[in-house]
Amino acid sequence: MPDNPIQEWKRIHKEATIVDVHAHPSLKVSLFNRMLTRRFRATRSWNPFSVRTDFHKLKKGEVDVLWSTVYAPEKEIQKECCWVKLIRFIMPCKYKKVFRRPYLDVTNEMLDQMEKQVANSKDKKTGKLMAKMAYSVRELDEILAMDDKDRPIAVIHNIEGAHSLDKKLDNLQHYFDRGVAYLSLAHFNKNGVAPPCFPYPESLQICGCFKGDRDLTLELTDLGKQVVEKMVDLGMIIDITHCTPPARKQVYDIVGNRMPVIASHVGAYEINPSAYNLKDWEIKKIADTGGVVAVIFMNYWLMPHETKRGLNYIARTLDHFINIGGIDHVAVGTDYDGFNDPPDDIKDASQLHKLTQRLLAEEYSEEMIKKIWGDNVLRVIREAWGKKV
Hints:
By secondary structure, the protein is an alpha/beta fold. 40% of the residues lie in helices and 12% in strands. The chain contains 16 helices and 9 strands. The chain has helices spanning 5-15, 25-32, 55-60, 77-80, 87-90, 92-99, 103-119, 137-144, 170-177, 222-234, 245-255, 280-289, 299-302, 311-325, 353-361, 366-384; strands at 18-23, 63-70, 131-133, 153-160, 180-184, 237-239, 261-266, 292-295, 330-332.
């Protein structure tokens, strides 16, 4: 161990390129009009109104690159829980914007709103921008090359759920042209592209809500196969998170070794045997593509018996990913602000250094820690994301 372990973890965390592969600040912006330049309190308990990735928390956590996840709420959610329909009366304007328009329109507006937040991210104290959009690998590298004192957080678009395509293949080109780097093929409901795993934690299955089954034997649709091929052609990264096991296998078979595939926020099946999590053969398969498997910060998926503190299982899951797929193919996808309940002991972006502390205490080398936090993901981005000028 180093002579001064406190200074050691601080140095390593600061020098590492910290990349969060999957987080949802745009949900809080779009649904609740949150300004990410404000400092919000992140609660330990589940709270849909809490903000865990405002720009100040991201800065305090030394986040260098944020893959900002845009998710247009699926209309079928209203059928899963009668309480959701109350939004029509509590927030009628918001209800119409979210549930009464095509997904393409909703998604574009959410992308626009996130871009405005980034454009207006000036810190009142320093006068400097806290964040800047990166619409290509070149723009990302330009931001990362800036002096550390002046460097803003590089924000990259991604979309969760192919329902945002509105079942039109041409819309994939539209999103790519907007700078979307990856698409998660599935989410909560059938979308005409990829079927989902069962999505809802048991804690939400109350008063008859969110208990609908999912058919885990379903595969990609014909459109889904075309979407995967088109993404390879474009250079849009494919995320298999939320897909059924058969659909995931089809993606691996279609893509082969033509481009890296990612799992942006998952756990390990061997630790928590949920169909949402990846089996060992899948971790190996993604590693073979050159991709990454990113650990989720949500106890329900991390552990077989849920508790409030999850840092132990985050470290354990990373260790399993590394043992199976290798140190070059792991990453971090927190899923912060995705209406989830993150671990109490690493509850928002400002506390990401706790994982660095834990890994250092478990005798991970500095090189390994830096690969986990960002080097692996940056390699995937540079190899797979289309060189859009």
